[in-house]
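Model: You mentioned two targets. I'll fold them one after the other.
Researcher: Yes, keep them separate.
Model: Target one:
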Amino acid sequence: MSFRTTASVDYVEDVSPGRGALPPRARYASSDAKSLSLNGSWRFRLSATADAEDDSFAGEGYDAGGWAEVTVPGHWVLQGDGAFGSPIYTNHLYPFPVDPPHVPTENPTGDHLRVFDLPDDWPAQDDGGAVLRFDGVESCARVWLNGTELGEFKGSRLPHEFAVGQLLKPAGNVLAVRVHQWSAGSYLEDQDQWWLPGIFRDVTLLHRPAGSAGDFFVHASYDHTTGEGTLRVDSDVDGRVSVPGLDIDVATGEQVTVAVDPWSAETPKLYDGELVTAGERVPLRIGFRTVALEDGLIKVNGKAILFKGVNRHEWHPEQGRALDVETMREDVLLMKRHNLNAVRTSHYPPHPAFLDLCDEYGLWVIDECDLETHGFTEQGWRDNPVDDDRWTPALLDRAARMVERDKNHPSVVLWSLGNEAGTGRGLTAMAEWIHGRDSSRLVHYEGDWNCRDTDVYSRMYASHEEVERIGRGLDGGAGKRRELPFIQCEYGHAMGNGPGGIADYQRIFEAHDRLQGGFIWEWIDHGIKHPELGYAYGGDFGEELHDGNFVCDGLIFPDRTPSPGLVEYKKVIEPVRIEGDGADGTVRVTNAYDFGDLSHLEFEFSYQVDGLPTGAHTLAVPPLAPGESAEVKLPAAAPDGNGDDVQWTVRALLAEDTAWGPKGHEVAWGQETVSPRTAVTVAASQRPVPGERLITLGPATFDARSGRPTTICGLDVTGLRLDVWRATTDNDDGASWQDDTRYGVLWRKLGLHRMQHRLDAVELADDALTVRARVAPAAAEVGLRTVYRWTSDGTRLKLTVSVTPEGHWTVPLPRLGVRFGLPADAAQEVLYFGGGGEAYPDTRAASMLGQWLPGIDALHTPYVRPQENGARADVRWAELGGLRIEGDPEFWFSARRWTNEQLDTARHLTDLTPGDTLWINLDHGQHGIGSQSCGPGPLPQYFLTAEPTEFSFVFSTTE
């Protein structure tokens, strides 16, 4: 009798960071030493448990011909059409029992096998050694080369290297990697994201010649008082450092001071240099800048900076966290073109190439450690690893691997200990180590409200009111905290429609020096491309525990299309303020950059009448220094609008091509009304004419029983009535842990999604058709007494709606207006004069007035989870299907091929099927959006309060 034995897998539940890996060191993209990418197709075998198979596959001669194949970098659950398991999404709940350091026996384990030959020009074995580098593996890996075990490691988003020089052979090298989805390390990686096992970053073989560079630290500071930079490169291996552009050629460890142009996110000046040791030449890209905590402020190069930032998870809808450089570049270019100046790498160090791009294009970076233990909040942080000394070596290992890898990036200005891990001795040890290793940067951690370990007071989702108090120094707290700068490391939760209220936050940030900005949560929706659902989110893969579409909370959609939220944010944080009262013919221009003047911009000016520009002019704006303003005279007098709206618009454009944007790219704009339109009037000169079933009034017919219009201006009209419901947004619904201000929940509880319409009277008079009704939810005593008054001058039709609330209304209304249907083929596009792009009361900063001609389908915003969307603000008039609609006052316009109720029940875009009716909403008001999916709701000034209201619309033909 014989038994198959398996190697011990005790290492999976070991709290240590692993064994066998080399000490962490600086990462550089290239050198003159040979390297070999091992990315590509690997043989793959999936087992249900960590010990299901022995390790014989790691030996030479093993026949893996029957195995499947996966692509590395990649996640196995996103390959194989479901044959290799499924993704799991949780926000903070661990998807396994919380019993640290233990993990389930059912532990998906992927054996990876790659056979490779060395290139013909690979140096001989006696010419130095070689290193095998893994840039990212989730969550625990054990490695063999040619049958020899190298070791194992944890720390999914961190690099690990192994010395392999003596094991290599010219051909037939067998690299074997066993990857476990769950390990003790999983307790430290409870970030709000998909759990995705696999080798998801690069695998590279690096030749290390004798005398090659080891670790090195580029110290490049800048003295803003003298304009000089000081360079010193500390290196484990002696050598020389040259920077030809600065005439520098010095030994490592030697300090030199020269005149330089500094690096900043606005002017990311990099000097090309080289570190030369006896065995290797390493290119350097050096940015001179100094980060300091001075006068209670974060200062770079002597100036306080204002973060206009975003949190960025790595994501691709098909490859998950396995991003290529061009995708990363696309992210950075989108950020720069939308006026962002900062990134927090939530919640782990990114692929190193991303930081190269931040250096090159210019973004401030908070580099965050691969650490989150959020799930322990479910048990009051009991057994939290960051307060357990047994875990401290793993925490320090993670801190060191982040700092050592990324320390030579000028874009990195703060180190972050991690995210939502409570507090504890392990975090203090990390902070002490980082402060000791790198005094040239500050340390951040949001969970440390008393700022024991950090250099900045950081919060997430603090309300506007609290941020204002903090800015005024009225927030209380420990003595040290009161002396520190404040940032919102997360705010403006960009889930679905929103975020709302970010313009109000920005005004507060700019009003108080202590407030140094914040980072919107977050950059991209983590939707997974799905053949039936469009994009999948939590629960779509049958997860036992999940957090639904909370993973889709980005400023860009999964395909990287900017959302209305990103367009709004671009406007809110624009680095040039363009304002004016419209009456005196002057514009006030303010430079809101931290460092640069306005010489790189040109300004274009035009008047517009009824939304159409009358001709562009150049506006001469001086090259204002940061913080400076100037009153600039408009070069032409305003035209006579003859009763139409007249506005001026000034746009700040790139004067020349830049690395991130083309000449003419719009950086900022301002717009003011010079003279408003004359309100449309309709003389009530036509008498309604009753018939057997229809009433005729001017260009319309009405059902004689209900008083509802059946045709207007020759178009069939159905279902015109008061509408107060909208398909609730993620921000309307709020988060499960919030209190009773979740208005989406309260609206449903009251029954606003199922309002009943009672007809009280249809009245004909000499000058009007009047329909009286009461609109109210079942089982409630509140209601809206509604009067529809129709008048006509024979060619035009006017509807005046009067609404009077009855009962005790304790909630605001979602919307207030009228809704009606037109035949589906009535129009394929709409011409309107109003705000361009989606907008709501607290998301309308980017809504530029003009005439617009979108297709009907373009009016729909494709949020991954369907919800209220697409409203156009400040609409004066709209034309579609030969029908012209004018508002008094301006109105919100929406058009969609399904009802609000159908939109409300859809869970994916594929649930929305166009019907035979085009539904139009003409709204007098909308409730604000806020960001209550994780933050505060709308500010009170954006509430749509139930109060007596009257508004009108005029219908006519476009001919």
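Model: Target two:
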Amino acid sequence: MSVQPSMTVKSTTHGALIDDLRLFITATTTKTKITTVELTKSCLFLLKHLPASRSASLHCLKSVFDSVALNHIIHLEKEMSTGKSSPPNEYDELMINDIYSLLISFVSSNGEAWAPIISTWSLELLGEISTHYAGRACVNGLNESLQLWMNCRATKTLIDITTQCLACLMHTNTEACISALLDTSVKHSPHFDWVVAHVGSCFPQTVIERVLFCGLKDYCENKSYRQGIESPKLKSVVGIVGHLATSHPGNIQNALLDLFKSCLNEDKQDSSPQNEIYRKATVPFLIQLFVLSDTMLNAISDQIKENLTVHTITKLYNMTNDWFKFFGSIDALQETMVALIMKCSKGGEHIIELLLKCIALNKKGKGRKYEDISNWTRELLECVLEEVDYKVRFHSSNHMMPAAFLNSLIYDIDYIYLLLLHDDALTAQTAARLIIYIGVVNPPLLIQALSFLLQNAKQPSHLAYFVRILNNELICKNQSPYAEKGGPFSIVLQHILDKDFVRMKGCTTDSEYEKFEQMWSNILLLLKWEKTNNIFMLKSKCISKGIEFNLTELTGIFRNKVLSAKCTDMLCEVLDLLDIPNANSSQMSVQVTLNYVHGAVNYFFQCCNETDLMKRISGFKQSRSILKKLCISSKVARNLALRQLLERALFSKDAVLFGAKPKQEEEPAESNKDLITENKKISKTIPLSKHSSVYNGGVIGHGKRKSISLYRLPVDLVAGNSEELITAIKESCVRPSDSDASLTLISLTLVQLVSPDVMYNGLPWLEEEFSKVTIERDLLIRRLFNSVPLLWDLLNLVAQHRPSLCYCSVLLRALTATLIHQWTSMGDQRKSTDTENYKDLMGTTIAVLDVMALGQLLPAPLCNVRDVITQLNSHEIVSILRECIWCYMRDNVPSPALFEKDPNGLSWRDPKRTRPDDVYTKTLRTIMQRNIKTVGHLYSRMFITANN
């Protein structure tokens, strides 16, 4: 390709060549003045026609570019100081254009020969100019330098020449250009960085690959470990690749991966000794690059999982002996690897996974190689954990950020959570240690990890890791956020109750139920461990303290019955083991007390429905234990517990558990439909008179009545439930200071629940005729006693504490009044004794008399009337009830003041002072004398023996 410079070039003759040579020699060896334009023409002429002058000519041309660069800097500084710009020098533009045209013609015509020479020359010149004028024109940093020199005609031309040379050698001898680039970068860094950045941007993949390979060659030529890590070319490689990382991260990642994969390829066609050296040095070289450059490490770290596997490690095992010379010793290699891992800001979970998998190779027993890999990896893992431990302790004390590796684990914390549940002990222990370190710098993640473990741990060993994490020395319990919220376990419970527990209310899948049941099981087991006082880490009572801190939420859950039966069983056991309230516990709030009582009562009735005998016994015991502790410590709790037990057992749907008659299904809502209208719809021809009546066997508008089948619980189950209820009520009343008040409360509550009218609810018995006024209320009370047999058990309980029965006077009065009316209506027919009504009436009468006798409201011989009436006629029974029982109770008001306490604390009435007058026993005596044949043995005991 011929070049026609804009300046006039002499014809190519022998004489002209001699003239230009003399001019060039004179200008460069003497002080003879010659213009730059003339000198440039001579250099170009000689460069084109005299190959021997190539080096001298190129060297001379450097001054031209340097002069143009200086003019650019001067003009720029003048513009910055004056604010006025000056036009560019025309001669500078002409000279640069002519030089560029000639050099490019050389590269185009014979690139293999000229491109390495010209690229080396241009790169060296760029380095000299960049270094010589560094800091001029207030330029600092790579971006400002790049902008400055790319606006300069001289340096921009040199950059174009370099890129043209590199493009020419792209597929032939790129190494020469890249080597020159590296050498210049080493010599003139950091002022030369802008050149590297621009050239690399033009050919990113090629430049990066060749830069890495040139760096590898230099790394292999170093004779010692120290020379390798301090090699200027290695640092230059780091600088060049680092500049290209921002705009070409993908190219860097691909180049690094290709280089790494090349060392794994053992089937290469070219297996020369030199290539073997490169292959064995590749991994140490990459490691040194990663140690020096975080950018390259980050570029490759997220590719660890795909490219660094156990299989890869086993293939690299054969090269490890050759690696030691690049690091000095095996310990140095290990230290380097630890430092490298600490710098990884990505892929931390893959590193842990790879280390654990390599350690597991030893279990497979495949040979010495796998054993060595396992042992070395185990040491490496321990060193990594120790280094993390050191950095966490150091950085936490200095309020600095921890290692990048620890931060990388945070992004994949779910993987670490799963490792906590691993069956392998080393794996779970490693995860526990990592969770502790992460928790020091990020407490919320510690809480999440503990929450996960508490909800998913299925083995005691998993809970052991929970305790180890919870009480580790690095977790400072006296600082925020733990100090304000009762410790880590308290926050864990709060986190579960506030976040995850919301799903408990609506969860339906078996897996979710299983998860929640597992959580309550784990909490219960932890509390049991603490109660044994054998585990040192739990001697601080952190479990019970954490539960107490969340007592409002826990008792709220216990109260609201949102858990499954199995979860409720465990929660009740937890609250029972908690052993509060007690002398050492803090005062419970009113809300907690209310929740506690409601929950314990709910659980009691849940146990009444339990079919498993062992669960029933255990549940009753726990619910009674909770109620007893609550009622002893709180009067409010005692009052509420007694009312809840009585009200639910008597009037709620739970009443059937204690023998109450099941309530019939509710009748359909009243309809406005008229029977006759409905009949007319069926047939309009029905002849109906004015006063006709039509009867229907169903409910108007709802069809035929449904047959009702009322199911009652087995007698033994009802008896067991009633017995447990009475026991629970008794234990709720056990308060040494005011047990009398507790039983009195039961009496008053019964009256309040059973008797709907507050009028005439006092203790006195009025005239029997007055019962006509209260007949409706009396019948209602009587129906309640008939439908709810538990009322009789409760009356007997009250009667055992005799003074308290006085407050049930209205109930006894109502029952007696209805009995008198009912016996009156029975007539004197003896045959009626075999009917069901008679048996029920007699049973009720005996029950009332038994209660009054047990409570010592009836003195002898009236207290024995229950044995007599079974042999009497109806009118005789009426006479005794009216003239003996009613009259005595009317004239002797049942009052607690009539009772005295003996030394044992029991209340009694003195039989000698309470013996009734004859007026109250005359009717009884007469009737018994009339029936002496059947009640003679009773007469003797009641009147003759007693009087003696």
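Researcher: Noted. Anything on target two?
Model: The beta strands are 698-699, 703-704, 900-901, 907-908.
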